[in-house]
Amino acid sequence: MSKLPQKNELGFFEIRLESIGGLGANLAGKMLAEAGVVGAGLNGVSFSSYGSEKKGSPVKAHIRFCDLHTPIRATSPVERPHVVGIFHEALYKTINVVSGVYEDSIVLVNSTKTPEQLKDMMKLIGGTIATVDAIGIALEENNRVNMAIMGALHRLCPFLDPEFFKGVTRKSLEKKYPHSVEPALRTFDRGFNEVKFQTFALPEGVTMPEPVRQDTPTLGYETQPMGGVITNPGNSILKDLSISRQGMMPNFEEDKCIHCAACDNVCPDFCFVWDEKADKKGRNNMFLQGIDYQYCKGCLKCVYACPTEALTELREVDGYADTKRIPHVFNR
Fold first, then answer.
1. Same structural domain for residues 77 and 188?
2. 26 and 161 share one domain
3. Whole-structure pTM over 0.85, yes or no?
4. Which domain holds residue 323?
5. What confidence tens digit (pLDDT) does each residue in 237-264 have?
6. Percent of the chain with pLDDT over 70
7. Is residue 219 part of a domain?
8. Residue 284: inside a domain, yes or no?
9. At residue 60, does pLDDT exceed 70?
10. What is the 3-state secondary structure (H, E, C) of the chain?
């Protein structure tokens, strides 16, 4: 039986995975639990929590490990994680993904940024921040983001055996999806080898913030504005769908556009910005100005519909959407 590096007052080593639907966090949590129970000889449990069961909606996976003599009677969500795995960097904009971390917790982020940059972005005070470009690895290996994250987690959790996990992966895929075995193993290995991490000491005299329970309402009797106004409804202009993009996005080239609106007809989220202008004959017509990437979830339906290749598939890089975004009139 492997020895756990840390335990809480109940004897648990706890992991929380923060993700969106479609990135495989639910399956990753189950596989991680199997690696700890069958491979490392620990007691363990895994379960997930999520809202609407659709691609792009927030998902959390909770995993607990303990020694064999410790019973697992806790079924509540993991509020004080020793390890947090964040499957999409942009989640921090709408969710407190680092809530409840200890001063020595490990926070793994799917990102191309440095640990120093992420520390400032996520307002972390101390702990270890690890980064791995899971989306980039998955695209290059034609595989899933969760396999790269699993590789990085096995590097950061030394009580887990990577060889055992690779054996489980091979066994589960080789019958139904034999062509996926080698890409999955390569993605896992790259996640294991390419993860980078840095530890930040907690400043003297500073304490970690208290965790916020998952079921704590955003608006309550102490924080609700006068008149019961809901300040951020789900259909407001504040909605941000950028967390739903999984590495690819549409790129607009105006000189190739014939303004046929085929893209707008298939777009499920009204991302395209139009303006009325005079054409060459002096008649008023609608002309496409660009894309408001705040509402683009990267489905790429517009790319497939475009008849002139004015819209093409592009690997998203940090900051590109912000610089190329054309805001809708109500956001200007």
1. yes
2. yes
3. no
4. 242-331
5. 777 778 778 788 999 999 999 999 999 9
6. 95
7. no
8. yes
9. yes
10. CCCCCCCCCCCCEEEEEEEECCCCHHHHHHHHHHHHHHHCCCEEEEEEEECCCCCCCEEEEEEEEECCCCCCCCCCCCCCCCEEEECCHHHHHCCCCCCCCCCCCEEEEECCCCHHHHHHHCCCCCEEEEEECHHHHHHHHCCCHHHHHHHHHHHHCCCCCHHHHHHHHHHHHCCCCHHHHHHHHHHHHHHHHHCEEEEECCCCCCCCCCCCCCCCCCCCCCCCCHHHCCCCCCCCCCCCCHHHCCCEEEEECHHHCCCCCHHHHHCCCCCEEEEEEECCCCCEEEEEEEECHHHCCCCCHHHHHCCCCCEEEEECCCCHHHHHCCCCHHHC
